[in-house]
Write a structure and sequence with these properties.
The structure is a single chain. The protein is α/β, with parallel strands linked by helices. It has two domains: about 5-45 and about 290-395, Aspartate Aminotransferase, domain 1 (Alpha-Beta Complex), CATH 3.90.1150; about 50-285, Aspartate Aminotransferase, domain 2. Helices cover about 45% and strands about 15% of the residues. The longest helix has 23 residues, at about 290-315. It is globular.
Amino acid sequence: MKPTASKKLASLPPYLFVLLAKLKAQAESAGHSVIDLGQGSPDLPSPARVVAALKASIDKPWTHRYPANSGLPALRQAIADWYRRRFKVTLDPDTQVLPLVGSKEGIAHLFMALLEPGDSVLVPNPCYPVHYNGVVLAGGKPRLMPLSESMGYLPDLRKITPAAAKAAKVMILNYPNNPTGAVLESNLLLEDALDFSRKHGCLIAYDNAYSELTFDGYRAPSILQIPGAFERAVEFHSFSKTYSMAGWRIGFAVGNAEALAHLGKFKGFLDYGIPSFIQEAAIEALTGPQDYVAEACRTYQRRRDAMVKALAKIGWEVPVSKASMYLWARLPKKAARLKSLKFAERLILEHGVVISPGIGFGPHGEGYMRISLIAPEAQLEEAAGRIGACLAKLK
């Protein structure tokens, strides 16, 4: 018998970054020196002190054994201590902290742990792909909350119909936002979301992976700073962006103890947790000096400014984001007829520059492109020049 994909898997297109990687390989085979500004994979090295901690830990034979599924107690305590310092939020490390094999895994597993077939999840769009795909793969039904430029890429909760509000089991929010780079200038949306949760009973899943990558004096909040949030919300963080540890695969969830208990139980059936030597290195990341994070922010801010300026020179005016490692920009008029995926394909195959098409983040992302600031300024300026050459060829 020929193996067939499940209907859930078959309903999804190929993962965006797998598709871009294939196009990149084609371009390299054709002789292009490719500048890859697609996936949000930091090019900055992980902190030297964290790498040293890993090397020291891996020499301890006990770290080679199966790790505790709920994470090392010392790591859970380090996360709680970091939260208290950063957000002035107190967490019980035993019930309100759960280490994860990356926040992407944790978000997808949360849906699998909580959803029954057909359960509804309110998902902003455009969105980080797992916010949508994770719901589908869990057998749930995503109900899109459009994010528009005119609204500052914030969802209008008033436009959620009574039926959709009643049916929702989870609402997911993500600020600083991926892919748009939008930020919360006040806590009003978080307060409104928690009020919505009280009225309709849904859990708020808050993806805060970019809380530490902020610029121009902006500081991102935690939803757990809002009174009553522990009864209504879980929050996800990642070491990938804050400490440039994307390949290490470690993150964490905090907040509502009952939701985390369900997530932890589910994970117990599917994974063995994070290798202990990586957990020990993560403790060093959280507890040691945080000057690395401040310098990373300065680096991304310089890159942001350089890329915005370089794109302006070719006639592409791009908004300046206050957070994340991305620029989110409406397609130039010359490229609008191609739509985002076709423009991305042409840019990669003919000019050797990878940027992400907005359609890869959902239907409300069409007409936009996401540019990752994961290269030094000189390469960003070179990429902008190649983009200009691509636009010049368009009629």
